[in-house]
Amino acid sequence: GNRDILYFLIIAAICLICVFYVYKKYSCNFIMAIFLFVASGDYIQWTYNGIRQFLAVSLIFACTGFLLKKKYVPVIVVILLASTIHVSALIMLPIVFIVQGKTFNKRTILFLFAMLMAIAFIDQFTDIITNVMENTQYSGEVDQFLSTEGTSVQRVLVYSTPAFIALLFRKRIEIADNQLINMASNMSIATLGFMFLSAFSSGLFLGRLAIFTSLYNYILLTWEIENIFTKSSARLIYAVMIVCYLIFYYYQVVITWGL
User: Fold this and answer.
1) How confident is the model at residue 68 (pLDDT cuts 50, 70, 90)?
2) What is the DSSP track for 130-177?
């Protein structure tokens, strides 16, 4: 009916149940993964402002188990259904194949190279986006989206940190040979690519694509801290990380968004 509070409550509940379910099942530190999800600003940005896109993101994120088992048919079906909610979900069709395999494999290298080429030829790239989006529900908003400033350096660094750690300690990840962490690492590398591209173009449009892959950052980052470093070092890193994320949260929510 016209009970908008109940309507938004149901959508937010679906989103958060999907996210919490995946973190509970696959994160080595559930509480810290939730903290990172909130302190990164994702909770406020997506369950309030970008709720329609985040509904599509959450439904696909809930398919993590299918991705690990390489059951692509149900994943593709969910992606196609999610695209009827938000067309940006279609970006996951190639991503689900790119992120399979070892960390920083040929497919992820090719993806990063494509992002670098898009940055190098950013004007031509935005023209292609405009042409592609002409016949979608966003046709009237594309110019407005692409005219916005790029993603801030601070946000790019925060979202890229798990990928940088994965690249720096690639050998450790290879030795562990954990399928989930391999996939999360490649998702994080894809996030790095999206964020760097959005920094040079539109944070409002291209920066939003990163949410499809960045949710895996919080699974990856907690695993990196607890499995790459010693226990005493891990406790210190967690303490520093919490302080840094709280500072970023304050900067993002209070200073940037004025909430």
Assistant:
1) very high
2) HHHHTTSTTTTTHHHHHTSPPPPHHHHHHHHHHHHHHHHTHHHHHHHT
